[in-house]
Amino acid sequence: QVQLVESGGGLVQAGGSLRLSCAASGIIFSIRFMGWYRQAPGKQRELVAVISSSGGRNYADSVKGRFSISRDNAKNTVYLQMNSLKPEDTAVYYCNVMDGWSKPRYPEVWGQGTLVTVSS
Length: 120
Known about the structure:
Elements: E1 3-7, E2 10-13, E3 18-25, E4 33-39, E5 46-51, E6 57-59, E7 67-72, E8 77-82, E9 91-98, E10 114-119
Parallel strand pairs: 2-10
Antiparallel strand pairs: 1-3, 3-8, 4-5, 4-9, 5-6, 7-8, 9-10
């Protein structure tokens, strides 16, 4: 079964950086697109970044130029490097296996998420 474990969140001041990690199991990681989502209080979950099996990347307009997604197939792990953080980046961040560039392959499977809080 698919399992996703996110880590690396925390409290950071505006302008700071954080690196999130997501360890995946139960899948053939290297052939899968992977994505990061976030859900702010009172808002719907939104897709932030996606990385393809070959390393191609897509980002939401709100994070372009500030966030970078990467992967380590040997560790079955996907990362999200977040720089120049803003208070509006405050959210719980989740990863998921993607079915292409825009939707989760397992929409019913989510990890516990990792909370990112950006203070002004």
